[in-house]
What does this fold into?
Amino acid sequence: MATAEIESILDLNTLEQYCSAIGAGTLLKSVVLFEQLMPEYVGNLVNAKEAQDKDTLCSEAHKFKGAAGSVGLKRIQQFAQLLQHGEDAAWANEHETWLQAIVDNANQDLAELKQYLESKV
It folds into this structure.
């Protein structure tokens, strides 16, 4: 994968800092934990949207944003950032698109992250 494409998916600066500070192997353990929790995170987002529960959707997006960011998953973190702000003018028209982008990209982005870290171990 081209560097520009990886940079759109992963926060390489943060990942490099984490790898320097704690090592890629330790970070990979956190990523495995995130991988186990991700179906619940994404499921909570989808369930809140289907229930048309805006407050819960925004709250769950905030949690997911923090979790994704903590392991360097830039693209899905950015969509969760948008999704958490229900007060924004664009939210009403765009929130379903942002959620779909998370659903569509989460597994592949996670696989890219794991591959990236495994190459650093």
